[in-house]
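Hi C.,

You asked whether I'd gotten around to modeling the 223-residue construct. I have! Everything is below, sequence then structure, no commentary in between.
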Amino acid sequence: MTKKLILATIVAALGGLLFGFETAVINGALPYISNFFELTDTMKGATVSAALFGCIVGALFIGRPADKYGRRLMLRILALLFFVSAVGTGFAPDIYIFVIFRFLGGIAVGSASVVSPLYISEIAPAEFRGRLTVSFQLAIVTGILVAFFTDYLLLDVGINNWRYMMLSMAIPAVIFYVMLFFIGRSPRWLVKEGRIREAKKVLQSINPHSNADQLIKDIQLTI
């Protein structure tokens, strides 16, 4: 298990951390959002569930773009979507704008739940695939924990504390986006696209002791 393989796994798993963060951060912010916008029970439900509806949309429709444009590129776009959701909800002038940006964050969550573990499984050698893919689940729980702790730290910062809670997600989103420039593309996707030389280079960098030519043949057979 090489350093590059571990790095690529950790970076992809940040999608899971943002998954957990996005879904959990609303818990601490909701009472203050409700007071600020004077929400009815119906609007409280819409505020929370908007992300869940977005999650369904993202999970349903991310597969084709990930196949066409690659896993890494889609993860970069999702990182930007997480950032947009954080900024949009943090600066929302009314509850309707807030719900729209929550929905966009939900799309990022649903999409990340597909693309991040997919990328990890495609870069991981067979003997490490199970334990590395599980890192995505660990990252989700970590994201939930970080979100709750962040909400706790921001409880006493004033009437706009909920805005800071929502904006806090922008920090891991930026880190996620930047770190994605330090990992390679999925070798399976590269082989599918006929970019064999690039795929071999990626395989040799993350697993230098493997037979890259044989791995490429195996991938071609499964495709």
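If it helps when you're writing up: Residues 56 and 110 are 6 Å apart (CA to CA).

Thanks,
B.
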